[in-house]
Amino acid sequence: MSQQPSDRRTLRSRRSRRSTSVAVTGAAMAVALLAAACGSSSKTTVAAPAGASATAAQPATGAPIEVGATDDLSAQFSVNGIGIQTGMSAAFDAINKAGGVKNQPLHLTSLDDAAKVDRGVANVTQLLTQNKVAVLGGYLLSNICVATQQAAADVTTPMICNAGDPKQFGTPPTANVFLPTVLAANENQAGFALAKQLVGGTAKPKVALIGLASASLIALQDAQKATIASLGWELGPDITVPLTTTDLTAQGAQIASAKPDIIFSNLADATSILLDRALQANGSKSPVIATDATTAVTATTTKDPNFYYLSTVSNGGTPGAGYQKFQDAVKAAGGDPSKPFVDRGYVQGLIIAEALKGCNGCTGQALIDQMNKLNIDTDGFTASPISFSPTDHQGIHKMFAYHWDSTKSTVALQAKDLPTGQ
């Protein structure tokens, strides 16, 4: 069954480690994926919705392929974790309606880690030993991705992590860990490309930094400091706050009083909103550039014309075929595509399904090998095609930038094809 709104409300209230098993089989509309030939490295595309012709595939009815996920579904980042689950479920629902993987439906079991590493480790142990999953996804937090990679590697199970540590994606990358977005540290080039647009001809811009104390965002902030030094810019306040932060009043006042020319906000939506409100309360007009961990939710909540954010996925500011297919799939599954990180979960779902279809439902090393051949054209839904290779496990290689357009009261595209890298 598709996950209904009442199911999601129940999920939000859960505080135990019981699993939420989401059987995704009943969408009213589907988005089929064009299957890659087994062993092929050619580009694949997201095809037209199933049902568009009389020859559309029938719903999958075979033995399910088990997929597992661990995310924060009940604590401070639960809105993002639930968004990932909603997007993955919607992608699987659409694929299952279109025939699944050789008539095998994809079945998602999502467990709540409450943003705690020990819970995430226990969840992954359960998914590997009891649920016998073919692949792991979710991983809202990089800390949990790092903590569980060895357990998954021991049984040759690929992991799709929403966020990861730079050490996992060196040369060569960790063999079984794949990133469906851009490594946070590699948002650095995109951020400074945008910053240079915003500061104009300022000779020596002052830059303020603030970020959450996660492995991925600390690495990004370190890269930002290195770039500031190399450009000869001035480093202003440099602040790191705990993941559990619920008040940024003092930090916002500190940054505003420094009068920086640009502010890099390496925060998630909830904390980014706190910061932006504190900055506005203190009269700051400095441009804020937020990381991809922030979404349009911050912009539409604060309505700050000085707020900009990087993104690896399209939203309403860049409508197109890929964006429309995403919207159709999520709405058909009973979800809200505008919620945070639903788009990220959807991308994870596409990656998992395409890899499994490319090798006819293989598992273990064969599935990892197939992941290393993926090249998915998403019709503009992502800032670049999603591709992996044995030497590169970062799936996206360009970024969009959006801003709050106060004249139209909506988010608007500021830039595209921004480069990635440190």
Low-confidence region ranges? 1-42, 45-55
Residue-averaged pLDDT:
87
- CATH topology tier name of the largest domain: Rossmann fold
- Tell me the number of helical segments per DSSP (H or I, 4 or more residues long): 12
Q: Sum up the overall morphology in one term.
A: globular
How can the largest sheet be summarized? 7 strands, mixed
Structural class: alpha/beta
User: What is the level 1 CATH name of the largest domain?
Assistant: Alpha Beta
Number of domains: 2
Assign the CATH architecture of the largest domain: 3-Layer(aba) Sandwich
Overall strand count: 17
What series of H and E elements makes up the topology?
HEEEEHEHEHEEHEHEHEHEHEHHHEEEE
- Going by CATH, the homologous superfamily of the largest domain would be Response regulator
The level of helicity is: 25-40%
Brief sketch in words of this structure:
This protein is an alpha/beta fold and about 425 residues long. Helix content is about 35%, strand content about 20%.
